[in-house]
Amino acid sequence: MLKLENVSAAYGQSPVLFDVNLEIADAEAVTLIGRNGVGKTTLLRTITGLHPVTAGGVKLNGEQFEKAPAYARTRAGLAYVPQGRGLFPHLTVQENLLMGLPALAGRETAKKEIPALVYDLFPICLDMAGRKAGNLSGGQQQQVAIGRALVTQPRYLLLDEPTEGIQPSIVQEIEKALTRIRTELRVAVLLVEQYLDFAWAFADRYYVMQKGRVIESGLTAQTPQSTVQRYMSV
């Protein structure tokens, strides 16, 4: 289980997150929603170790990780696909995928090669293996970015706005792939998403953030989208 206990964070002297509690069970899908600027991306960066915690705890598989560096969290099973995908545009698709392999250092049982399932889930990674990532469409880049995250063989996959700027047909493909990632690989997914149709179709539970705090949570199956829409509009 991934668990946050009263997590707070700041930029300099300006607090951004306030006593956030959140948990994700194995193979569960959770969506984090809220308006732009409420702290969702900062929360993901805090979980992954890219932004420091000022108070509270981050537990991963029962162990405290709030003081651990980002690489240690990755090796423990966290994978992060940032908003904007974070690919190396001048490297090929294949080279971008290979960049995930160093995260397996120290795992004796890990195979030091790109898993075949990555190509099965995202055929674009094989079809365009020799093409520079910067020349791909937004939807193709997103698939490569998720594929690279899977190379690290994670237990928890954190996605920041994976549908942003992507055509509906590719969004459907990504949803199908993420469903397989959960069911076949047993990987839990934490999804920051503005597109509620996608979030509600995929996630089991939701958290709402407002001004750096979690103000509401529940089951997506028991909560109409209309009741949380007010937290998304300006």
From TrEMBL:
CDD domains: ABC_TM1139_LivF_branched. Keywords: Amino-acid transport, ATP-binding, Nucleotide-binding, Transport. It holds the Pfam family ABC_tran. The keyword Transport applies. The keyword rRNA-binding does not apply. Residues 2-232 form the ABC transporter domain. GO terms for molecular function: ATP binding. It comes from the Bacteria. Belongs to the ABC transporter superfamily. This is High-affinity branched-chain amino acid transport ATP-binding protein LivF. It comes from Deinococcus xinjiangensis.
